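Same chain as my last thread, 391 residues:
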Amino acid sequence: MKVVIIGNGVSGITASGEIREKDASAQIEVYSDEKYHYYPRPLLIDFLYGKKREDELYFYPPKWYDKKNIKVTLDITIEKIDPQAKKIITEQGERISYDRLLITSGASCNLPPIRGADRSGVFTLRCLEDAKNILDASKRSKKLVVIGGGILALEVAGALKKDGLDITVVEVGEYLLPRQLDTEGGEILLKSIERTGIKTLTSASTEEINGENSVTSIKLKNGKEIEADMVIISVGIKPNIELAAGVLKTNRGIVVDEYLETSEKNIYAAGDVAEFEGRCYGIIPAGIEQSKIASQNIMKEHSAKYSGTIMSNTLKVVGVALTSEGDIFNQQSVQHKFVDSSKEIYRKIFVRDGKIIGHIRLGDRKNLKELSAAIRAKKEVNDEEIKKLLS
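reply #2:
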């Protein structure tokens, strides 16, 4: 069997390894438009911090691919899919056949309709090449504005603060990390971030990026201007569905069923590009889980089902430990919390029908395994157990 994988991110490379474990004789070919072998995207922040050199980013050495007999072709763009002929076509016109096709083409940075977003000095961060360009520009800059208040935006701001930049984070929402925190948690995080010298503006919408040959400032919709000679836009991602448009069923992403199969037989999708039951997850745990299930079904049709991934983020944001897991926006949930403002610690547990459905933990990492296990097991808990988990 010949399996072709488009994309060499976490989903594509995980799937290639899984397929090789299941079948020593399968022909596995991976095609990527990046110039680099697989590296975990979170390590780009360590690269910006200076904690990792470029050669330390790669997850596997080149010999791993040789040992596994996985053929990886880099710096190549796939232009078309021909399901009837069971071929993919490169931009050079080369036609590559497959028995099974897995699309893990990932996502790109979302760009809001901001005038001047195409000016010199405006950046996004999605790949290693982006990180190199940002690092190079930061050495020549003095004032940085980061548009967006999500995880990546705050991590980039934290990483570049070491260079002595004057940094302002501009978030359109009422508080930072609107997908991982509630209002109270966002306010506590804000204090922690401002202690580092990073300025923040919330409920602030960017209208225009000013400048002639390069950036000089940004203008907010309320008329306020903020000086900047460098701007980074980080306002989410959008799945790369261009290749599938008109060939496969698409919505926000490539629509897949419970087997991660697309609208065309023998073509599967996983990771940021896949849409399951109306949802594109955009997180690494989902990409790994989906790629494992897709690889099982590629080798043996309809042998494994996907039922969704529990949303989970565990990381440090500008040095502050944060975990957000499960359903933290359920309007019917009963909420239990612990707050220590002096230590900037915030813990919250969300319970529905006697079961923990989500939690937020900001400022420490106590009881994370127990909380995660309770959510996944749909375990019933009493008030005493909740009190213990909050302690």
